[in-house]
Amino acid sequence: MKPAGWGELGWAAVLVVLAAFLPLVANGYWLSIGVTAMMYIALSTSWVLFSGPTHYISLATGAFFGVGGYLVGSGMSDYSQSFWLMAAISPIVGAILAALIGFATLRLSGVYFVIFTLGLAEMIRNVVSWVQNNFLGSRGLYVLTDLRDQHIYWMLLVVAAAVYLLGWFVSRSRIGFALRIIGGDETVARHVGINTATAKVILFTSTGFFAALVGAIIAPRWSYIEPNQVFSPQLSFLVVIMALLGGSGRLWGPLVGVIPFTIIWEWVGIQFPNQSILFIGLCFLLIVYFLPQGVVGRLEELRARMRRAS
Amino acid sequence: MRQSGSVLSVKGVTKRFGGLVAVSNMSFDVAEHEMVGVIGPNGSGKTTMMNMISGAFKPTEGRIALKGRVISDLPAQKIAREGVGRTFQLVRLLPGLSVLENVKAGAVFGHRQRWGREADDIAHDMLERVGLDAMSYAPISSLTYIDQKRVELARTLAGEPEVLLLDEWLAGLNPTELETGVELIHALRDEGRTVVMVEHVMDAIRSLCDRCVVMSSGAKIAEGTPDEVLSDREVIRAYLGDDDA
Question: Which residues in chain A have their CB less than 8 angstroms from residue B111's CB?
Fold first, then answer.
């Protein structure tokens, strides 16, 4: 990820302010799409923080997201805790879990890392389901709050803005530079003096923190939570697709991917509810074949070519 | 020049990969401002030796010390920060980064840990040093082979190392490029840098090295000035076989 400039930060601030007005002009269907889009913007941007520069494709987003949602459900339903307390605890648990996974996967790279994170997410889902079914009695959990779609939307907007701001600082910092070098060649990274393990674990931990936070915030939208639903592996794939569609080379790349994809995804879900998985697969193929650098990468490539021609 | 105290000292270093002994009981010292060549036939363990100094591998036995501090139990990134910089036998550059950023990587995380303008300045200086400042913002893919090697050398120099390891830096260059390359290393020598180089180009070894360590089958078979070791019967036998010795 290239270092982001002040101009970019200014544009981001303008977009955040504009986005804050959405609930005032839209409601019902469009607000609900807004909530979904904002959720994916926060998740994809935080995914890109780690996976963008390092090229470590993580499929564990669903696990952290699920932990967040599940903790809120379980805390409120089984232990009568407040939503706010659980929403504060969730990201911390998500971060700790991510740090542990980070340390466990340090030696893995490439496809092994991908498989590990996918398997791990599935394992967490099954363990939580098993504990829930065998020891905690009930299958589902109720999350009943006074929060409406617009409140959830605004909270997610704040999280997305925070993720962006963090990413902006990271991209200009030594650790951001270190991650780009790690993504290029880890042997070189070690030999120029980078503690590759620390750099990777710190960023992966931040991904876990934000995914769990988003999972916690979105929980009230469902009211009723089942482990199988919040730990959906589909979510991990969607986050990756949207980030890749936009382009993971820039911090604002995911934004470009998420908005159109969310709208199309909603439409596909309504028109062809049984073929949605097929649609994901098709998108993956198309992106990998035609937009390996994402829309943003493609545009930058075209711009560079035009500059050379002129 | 040789008696000014040893900067790098290798003592009784052995490396085993399972049953294979790649390096066996190697010992040598490198003094400050000295250029030492590590030579020997293919597969004699030279690169393994370099990899142990830079921390890519840990020695099975023995120890390596930099200015009296043992570094052989440290990970590669710590050794780099202690002041050992290296180039790789097959050039390793970062294709997603510009030429300048590639060099800056050395300055930012290396021995002195620079950042911001200071790191940029050092990167520019080092690129100028190797004669590539004009290419600062070019993509890596547009570089020729010798230019890639120069960028890698600039990256290593940007880390301001106390000891520089050059692993076959002259290999794979055509005759014209070789001339440029030898000149560049000569300039490093004139600066008084402490260098350990693995090399096959004998002319370069004769003109550059103060001293040579000759390896064969993982062990040291000779040590001395280039002329001494290259006329040593044992060395000739290792390179050419018994008949020619």
Answer: 193
Residue B134, classified by CB atoms within 10 Å of its CB into exposed (0-12), middle (13-18) or buried (19+), is: exposed
Structure tokens at A144: 């009943």
User: Is residue A305 classed exposed, middle or buried when 0-12, 13-18 and 19+ CB atoms within 10 A define those classes?
Assistant: exposed
Q: Coil, strand or helix: which one is B65? A: strand
A174 contacts B115? CB cut-off 8 A: yes
Mutate to test the interface with A, among B109, B148, B152 (most CBs of A within 10 A): B109
Q: A181–B97: do the CB atoms touch at under 8 Å?
A: yes
Nearest chain B CA: its distance from A197 CA (Å): 10
Cβ contacts of B81 on chain A, cutoff 8 Å: 193
Secondary structure element (H or E) that encloses residue A74, with its range: helix A61-78
- What's the rounded Cα separation, in Å, for the pair A215 and A72? 9
This complex has an ipTM of 0.89
Distance CA A117, CA A59 (A): 5
Question: Where do the domains of chain B lie?
Answer: 93-160
Q: What global pTM score does this model have?
A: 0.89
Query: What does DSSP assign to residue B19?
Result: T
pLDDT tens column, B151-209: 999 999 999 999 999 999 998 888 888 988 999 999 998 988 999 999 988 888 998 99
Interchain contact, B97 vs A195, CB within 8 Å:
no
Of A177, A185, A193, the CB nearest to B81: A193
pLDDT in tens, A222-235: 888 887 778 888 89
Asked if residues B109 and B85 have their Cβ atoms less than 8 Å apart, the reply is: no
Contact A193 B96 (CB under 8 A): no
Distance, in angstroms, between A173 CA and closest chain B CA?
9
Which pair of tokens denotes residue A306? 């035009």
